[in-house]
Write a structure and sequence with these properties.
This protein has 707 residues and is an alpha/beta fold.
Length: 707
C-alpha cells in the first residue's frame, strides 16, 4: 500500500491487523457518514458529524497557534466521538465524580483531541480556551497537564507527553480502582465500578516503560484497564515499518491481555468492542488495536508521517470546506446536544442515591473515604507525638530505622502505600500489617505492599497513576543508584505536584564491595536538580522520622528519602524534638558553638557524624549544621536562614559523600567543600570512605588547613 492511501476494513481479529489494509476509493469514502441507527443505539451519522467537527477544532486551533500535532486528533476523531458521547462513565458537570471512568491521553502531543472533546462534551472548557491553544496562561497547554498550581483544566486525568508513561499511568489508575473497589464496595452497595482508558500510538508502545506496565497489569489481573492503540503505521521520522516489525497483538497476548483489532474509523466497531471490554471481567487487561489513518481529513498528508505534526496546516482551509465546515471553530447545536445526556445522567443520579445509602449503612468506611478524598492526614505534631524515639542507644542504618518508621506512618496515614522494585528485603520498606497487593498467591486488592518487579521505570509511572487517581499516597523503593531508570517519572510527579514518596537506599560509596556500578556519587545532586522534588538525606533515626513525616504530609509534590545501607551514629545527646523539628525546616543547628563563632561545618546524611566528631576537636568556635534537605531549607524565611548560618561567619566547610556542586550556594566563594568527584571503587565500605576522604580525620585536617 502506498503511504497516504491506506484505510482498513471493519474486520475484528485477535492479531495485529496486518493484512487488513485496503485501498480507499476516494475522498468521499473517508468522510461521508452512513446514516443508520446501530444495534447499540448509537446514531453513527450524528457521531460522524461530531468527529468531523472535532477535526475542525483541531485544525483551527493548531493553525492559529502555528504549533501542534494534527495527526492524532484527526486520525482518532471517531474514537473520541464514541468515548465522550457514549462509552465513558462521566459527568462533565461533575468532573471529579468519584465513580467516573478515567481517560488518559498517553500520546499527549495530540492534546487538541482531548481539548476538543472536553469542550464539546460540556466540561468547563469554553471555546475561548480552545481558541487559545498553546498560549500563555491558557487552559489548553501544549501537552495535557493534571490540575495543579499552573493549570486547572477539568477532565485531565494525568500529565502526559513523555511517550509511554500515560499508558502505565492508566495501569496505576486501574490498580487504584481495584483497591477502592475492594476497600469500599459491599455486598449490598457497589459504589465503585469504573474503568481506566488510555489512547496511545506506536511511540508509546515502542518506549520500554509501556512493556513494564503491561506486564504488571496482566500479572495482577487489571481487567478494568483498556488501552486503545492508534495503529496508523506512522511515526514521526518515517513510516513505522522503518523501525518496528514485531506483532504487537501477539506480544500483548503473551503478556496475558485480551486483544481485538478493528477499523478505528468504524464507529459501531469501536462502540461494540469497548462495551464488550467493559463487561469482560476475565482478569485480563484489554488492548483495542484501532487501525486508523493519521491526519484523516487532510488528504494531502493523511496516512503519512508528514501528518504527525503541523505540515497539514497549509491545507486546512480547502479540506474544511470539503468537510462542510464553513466557519472557524464550528460546532453545531445538534452536536452539543448529543453530549447533554451525560450531564447529570440517570446513571449518575442513581449512583448518588446508592452512595447516600452506602454512607448511611457504612459509617466507618464512609468516614475513611471522606478523609481519603479530602487528602486528610494527621498534623506533623500529632505524628511526632505518636512515633516514639526509634533508636536511642544503638547506631543503625537509616534504612533500618526506616523499616520501623514506615509502619508507624502506615497506621497514622492509612492511604499511605508501599512498594519496591524487587527489593523489599534490602530497602526495608515493608508494611508488616499491610498485606500484599494483587492477584493470586497471598495477595489481595486491599494489600498495601506492591511488588513491582524489577521494573523501576514502570514503578515510577504506576506510582504516578495511583497518585493521579487521588485516594492513595504511593511510595516506591529501590537502590539509589537505580533511580536513574525512573527519572522521567519523577520529573512528571514534580511537575504535576503529586505527593509520591521515593525510598532510595544504599545511598553512597558506603555500599562498598559491590563497587562503582552500585555506588551513587552523582545521584543525590542530580535529584536536587529537579524543581519541586524535596530530596531528604537524614543523618540518623530521628531525622529519618521527620523525613518520613514530611513525605507523608506533603501535598504539593514528591519527596525522595535517601537512606544509608551502613550504620550511622545516633545523635542521641541532642533531643529528638530538636532533630525532628529541625529536619522539617531542611537544616538546623545540631551543635552550637560555646565561644565566638569561627567556623560552620555543614553536612547531610552519613557525613553529619563526621562533622560532629570534628567539632569536638576543632574548638569552641565551631558550629555544626545538619542539612537533610536543601529545598526545604531554601523555602524558610530569611531570618531563619541567617539564624542558622549568619552572614558574619564566612568560614564554612561542607561535607558529603557525593558530587558537591550544590553545597557552594552555602559555603560561598570563601568556603570549602569536601566531596566525591569521581566514581567509587570495589572494597569494603570503610576502606572506600577512607580512600575518598569521607572520614572525621580527613575533615579535621581539611578544616585546620583551611582555618
Amino acid at each position: 500500500a502506498v503511504p497516504g492511501t491506506a484505510r482498513f476494513n471493519g474486520a475484528t481479529m485477535a492479531r495485529s491487523g496486518l493484512g487488513l489494509r485496503a485501498a480507499k476509493t476516494g475522498r468521499a469514502a473517508t468522510l461521508a457518514p452512513l446514516r443508520m441507527q446501530t444495534a447499540t443505539g448509537v446514531d453513527t451519522a450524528a457521531l460522524a458529524k461530531a468527529a468531523n467537527e472535532a477535526r475542525g477544532l483541531a485544525m483551527d486551533s493548531i493553525a492559529a497557534a502555528k504549533s501542534g500535532h494534527l495527526g492524532l486528533p484527526l486520525g482518532c476523531a471517531e474514537i473520541g466521538a464514541v468515548l465522550y458521547s457514549d462509552f465513558l462513565q462521566h459527568n462533565p458537570k461533575d468532573a471529579t465524580w468519584l465513580n467516573r471512568d478515567r481517560f488518559v491521553l498517553s500520546g499527549g502531543h495530540g492534546s487538541m483531541f482531548l481539548y476538543s472533546w472536553l469542550h464539546m462534551a460540556g466540561y468547563d472548557l469554553p471555546m475561548s480556551e480552545v481558541k487559545n491553544f498553546r498560549q500563555h496562561n491558557s487552559a489548553t497547554p501544549g501537552h495535557p497537564e493534571f490540575p495543579n498550581s499552573e493549570h486547572n483544566t477539568p477532565g485531565i486525568e494525568a500529565t502526559t507527553g513523555p511517550l509511554g508513561q500515560g499508558v502505565v499511568n492508566a495501569a496505576g489508575i486501574a490498580a487504584a480502582m481495584k483497591m477502592e473497589q475492594a476497600l469500599f464496595n459491599t455486598k449490598d452497595h457497589t459504589i465503585f465500578d469504573s474503568v481506566a482508558v488510555s489512547l496511545c500510538g506506536d511511540g508509546c508502545l515502542q518506549e520500554g516503560v509501556s512493556a513494564e506496565g503491561a506486564q504488571f497489569a496482566a500479572h495482577e489481573g487489571l481487567d478494568n484497564l483498556i488501552i486503545i492503540y492508534d495503529s496508523n503505521d506512522v511515526t514521526l521520522d518515517k513510516m513505522a515499518e522503518y523501525t518496528q516489525s514485531e506483532d504487537t497483538a501477539m506480544r500483548y497476548e503473551a503478556y496475558g491481555w485480551e486483544v481485538v483489532t478493528i477499523d478505528g474509523h468504524d464507529i459501531e466497531a469501536v462502540k461494540s468492542t469497548l462495551d464488550k471490554f467493559r463487561a469482560a471481567k476475565n482478569g485480563k487487561p484489554k488492548l483495542l488495536i484501532a487501525k486508523t489513518i493519521i491526519g484523516k481529513g487532510i488528504d494531502e498528508v493523511a496516512g503519512t508521517n508528514a501528518a504527525h505534526g503541523e505540515a497539514g496546516v497549509a491545507y486546512v482551509a480547502e479540506n474544511k470546506k470539503r468537510m462542510g465546515l464553513t466557519e472557524p471553530w464550528q460546532v453545531s447545536a445538534d452536536t452539543y446536544k448529543i453530549f447533554e445526556a451525560k450531564h447529570n445522567s440517570d446513571r449518575y443520579t442513581k449512583w448518588q442515591s446508592t452512595f447516600g445509602d452506602w454512607k448511611t449503612a457504612n459509617a466507618e468506611k464512609a468516614a475513611m473515604l471522606d478523609k481519603f478524598v479530602k487528602k486528610e492526614v494527621p498534623s506533623v505534631a500529632d505524628m511526632f507525638k505518636a512515633i516514639p524515639e526509634i533508636s536511642k542507644d544503638k547506631d543503625v542504618a537509616t534504612r533500618e530505622s526506616g523499616s520501623q518508621i514506615i509502619n508507624y506512618i502506615s497506621d497514622l496515614v492509612p492511604q499511605f502505600l508501599s512498594g519496591s522494585a524487587d527489593l523489599h528485603g534490602s530497602n526495608k520498606n515493608y508494611i508488616k500489617t499491610g498485606g500484599n497487593y494483587g492477584r493470586g498467591f497471598d495477595k489481595s486488592y486491599t494489600g498495601k505492599n506492591f511488588y513491582f518487579g524489577i521494573r523501576e521505570h514502570g514503578m515510577g509511572s504506576l506510582m504516578n497513576g495511583i497518585s493521579f487517581h487521588g485516594l492513595f499516597r504511593p511510595s516506591g523503593a529501590t537502590f539509589l543508584v537505580f533511580v536513574d531508570y525512573m527519572r522521567a517519572t519523577i520529573r512528571v510527579a514534580a511537575l504535576a505536584e503529586q505527593p509520591c514518596t521515593y525510598i532510595l537506599t544504599h545511598d553512597s560509596i558506603g555500599v562498598g564491595e559491590d563497587g562503582p556500578t552500585h555506588q551513587p556519587v552523582e545521584t543525590v545532586s542530580s535529584l536536587r536538580t529537579f524543581p519541586n522534588l524535596d530530596v531528604m538525606r537524614p543523618a540518623d533515626a530521628e531525622e529519618t522520622v521527620a523525613a518520613y513525616v514530611h513525605s507523608a504530609t506533603r501535598q504539593n509534590g514528591p519527596t525522595a528519602l535517601i537512606l544509608t545501607r551502613q550504620n550511622v551514629k545516633e545523635q542521641s545527646h541532642v533531643a529528638k524534638e530538636v532533630r525532628r523539628e529541625g529536619t522539617m525546616k531542611g537544616a538546623y543547628i545540631l551543635h552550637k558553638e560555646t565561644g565566638d563563632l569561627k567556623l560552620i561545618i555543614m553536612a547531610a546524611g552519613s557525613e553529619v557524624q563526621h562533622a560532629m566528631e570534628a567539632a569536638k576537636v576543632l574548638g569552641d568556635g565551631v558550629r555544626v549544621v545538619s542539612m537533610p534537605c536543601m529545598d526545604v531549607y531554601n523555602r524558610q524565611s530569611d531570618a531563619y536562614k541567617k539564624e542558622v548560618m549568619p552572614d558574619s561567619c564566612r568560614k564554612r566547610v561542607a561535607m558529603e559523600a557525593g558530587v558537591g556542586a550544590y553545597w557552594y550556594q552555602y559555603v560561598g566563594l570563601d568556603g570549602k567543600v569536601l566531596s566525591v568527584e569521581r566514581f567509587g571503587m570495589s572494597a569494603p565500605g570503610d576502606i572506600v570512605f577512607k580512600e575518598l576522604g569521607m572520614t572525621a580525620d580527613h575533615l579535621i585536617k581539611a578544616c585546620k588547613d583551611y582555618m
